[in-house]
Amino acid sequence: MSPRRETYRCTVERLADGQVQTIVIDMVDLEGVPRSVRVSNASATRIAGALHDVLRAAGVPARAWSAGRPIDLDPVPGGQVALLLQAVKPMRRADRIDQIAERIAEMSREEASYWHAKAHQPGGLRALRVLLTNGATR
Fold first, then answer.
1. d(CA 71, CA 130)
2. In a 10 Å sphere around its CB, with 0-12 CB exposed, 13-18 middle and 19+ buried, how is residue 40 labelled?
3. How far apart are the C-alpha atoms of 49 and 127, rounded to whole Å?
4. Distance CA 77, CA 90 (A)
5. Binning pLDDT at 50, 70 and 90, where does residue 2 land?
6. Could you report the per-residue pLDDT of 20-35, keeping only the tens digit for each?
7. How far is CA 47 from the centre of its chain?
8. What pTM was computed for the model?
9. pLDDT in tens, 102-133
10. How far apart are CA 128 and CA 83, in angstroms?
11. What tens digit of pLDDT does each residue of 3-22 get?
12. DSSP string, the chain
């Protein structure tokens, strides 16, 4: 019996001019349940730099990032990308999206793993957003 592990696949869709239009993370959790998070348009453009930082730190070559094909990620960077997308998805304020994306990209592997696990509990993402925006809730 093979050990169960989470799987992550990130896809970056671009417009003809190369601008990031959509970022998608497809996940399968330890119980085999598939989930997907999609961030589009202005939010995707705003978090592209933070996503690139996470992928670069994970050793993903720039060619893979810009190719438009899905990128298979190990559980830790995959969880960090999922956390990034989940944290900014419902947000509208550009300054808060930028702040949260930047701070998630700066997280250590351990901190990102902790918050990724907390994000699936009630109030977890809200707590993360409050922490990363220094208590600002509006």
1. 30
2. middle
3. 23
4. 21
5. low
6. 999 999 999 888 899 9
7. 9
8. 0.90
9. 999 999 999 999 999 999 899 999 999 999 99
10. 10
11. 678 899 999 999 999 899 99
12. -PPP--EEEEEEEE-TTS-EEEEEEEEE-TTS-EEEEEEEHHHHHHHHHHHHHHHHHTT--HHHHHH-S-EEE-HHHHHHHHHHHHHHTT---HHHHHHHHHHHHH--HHHHHHHHHHTTSTTHHHHHHHHHTTT---
In angstroms, the CA 20 to CA 14 distance is 4
What residues are paired with 28 via a beta bridge?
Answer: 7, 34
| Angstrom distance (rounded) from CA 132 to CA 27 | 24
- Residue given tokens 């956390």 in the structure block: 83
Cα separation, 46 vs 94, whole angstroms:
8
Provide the residue type at 14 as one letter. R
